[in-house]
Amino acid sequence: MPLTADTIAAQHVQERLKALYQLVHDIEKKRQQSEHGINNIQKMQNSQDEKSSQHYQMKLKGLYKNAIAHAEQEEEVLRKALQKITEIRNIKNERRIQTRHTINKDTIRRGPWMKMLLSSAQTLPLFVSKIGEKPPPLCGAVPADPNYVAKVGDMVAALVKVADGDGDCILAEVVSYNHTTNKYEVDDILEEQNQKERHTLSKRRVIPLPLMRANPETDSSALFPLGTVVMALYPQTTCFYKAIVNKQPATHMDEYVLLFEDPSYAEGYSDPLCVAQRYVIALKLKTKQA
After folding, report:
1. Number of Cβ within a 10 Å radius of residue 275
2. Which of its termini does the chain have fewer beta carbons within 10 Å around, N or C?
3. Phi/psi class of residue 32: alpha, beta or left (left: φ > 0; alpha: ψ in -120 to 50)?
4. CATH code where residue 206 lies
């Protein structure tokens, strides 16, 4: 009996989970080695030895070299583990795309769907640069290359026309891209609530969302500066509106704190609201205000 696509995908996920399980154990071993090396350095520096002697300097230098080597080994294993997590995420996303037209979307209500969007943002792969390495396109605030085309199943910000002739910027999913006409077909993300609406849009009306989170501790340059006017997904909605960056993420788990333009407030801006990196993009599309 031939294996189904679901079974094959499950096997691929299990293989990577097993590898990840072993990597987690390896990470702990490397962490202990790194900790031991740092402790040896501290003991050496706290010793009563003559710190200006050549023997002391050579021994301390050797301890530092060992500590650096252990730290590099720990980093390597951590990066391997992150890669396995990304592979698992990609496999599951591919299956979701392949089966999206067969599931009963009536069963997914607004609350669970909003939780899914939040989870998607929180589990977006984290980019941690090496020394001298620059964040790649679609990492945090870094825009896509001009010739980049979003893949089928990717979420994007799409400017769609509405009755009054203005535009709404909505969260959408890429269905296809025509290289001849340079146009996307995208589905309003609300299709998950059985409100499917497909749009055909030119490339300039579609902005790919970040594919990786920027790490504020190593790549703050890949974050929008304070005071920047951006487009962001208003909490508990699937629409993007203009906002000002009030506070940057301080750690890889933090979100932006934004002030949305809102004429219903006396100051013209909403109270501070938190929005994940994945749903904050550069201001390029002309839309209505919140």
Report:
1. 21
2. N
3. alpha
4. 2.30.30.140
